[in-house]
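Subject: sequence -> structure tokens, single chain

Hey, anyone have a minute? Need the predicted structure for the following. Not urgent.
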Amino acid sequence: MKASVLITTYNQEKVVGQALEGALSQVTDFDFEIVVGEDHSTDSTRSVICEYRDRFGDRIRPLFRGQNLGLMRNLPESFLACRGEYVACLDGDDYWTNPHKLQRQVEFLDAHPDYSICFHNALMVWDDGSHDPTLHSPPGRKPTYSLGELLTHDFISTSAAVVRNHLVRQFPSWYGTLPVPDWPFFVLHAMHGKIGYLDADWAVYRQHPAGMYCRLAEEKRMEQNVGVVRIFRNVLGPEWRGPLTQAIHSRCLNLALYYQQHGERAKARQFARMAMGERPPGLLPSCRTAAKVFAYMHVPAIPRLAKRYRAARKGKTRSKPAHPDHGGQAVTER
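Reply:
Had a minute. Here:
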């Protein structure tokens, strides 16, 4: 079988039908299955899936759990049950908006055997209207990304990705210790090849009170990400220690500034100390780190000015090199 669409779901009776409809609407020149990892929901999610299975038969293959496994087990166990050469991921509360999405991403991976992941943008939409829709796209919007970039920044929306199957057949013990399943899932695949980006908006990443993203306050998400990067540093090879230490330092510095701006001085000092602890060895780098932390804490305008200076040098509308999948057209940052 050429592809599997993997939908993971729990207590999503009102929205999982839209995810299924988006998968069923895909127009392809190959066969694909829809695998639904239903994690023992307490609402009518299972009934909705059964209705679709009864209507579409073998197109939909539910995996009904006898007990709730949780996010960190449901995704990998459902993934390992997929039979396709490629696996397209789709959260049960998200949906796809283009019927040719799966075809395009499979074609890309067929044409680029040295790539293990292909992804695109996702539109973040808040169901309660509390925020304007926001495009979730990677930094720089360039054709190719690497494992090193993914280790330091979580830029792939789950429902925007297709991975090459059979590269990861066993999940390491440290995977289950993390608070989120998708970022380390893509890291494990990026260890086997490049990451291809298509400059298109083919998925909606729904934000609602029951979703993982909305349940955590901004500062808690930032703190959680520091913990994830620390685990990456602990379990990966020594060649990644320097870049990951720098990433932890930057994240702690941003948290110190965040808490300083929100009047939580004790928290600000805590993360400033963490930022100082995550610094490269040597006297000169240590002095530079100390000066940077002091400036961030006591002159908050400095990081904003530095960010503007870097953006001005880089050029926000700089044209990107042509990507093989873009028909020879250059990609322009938005």
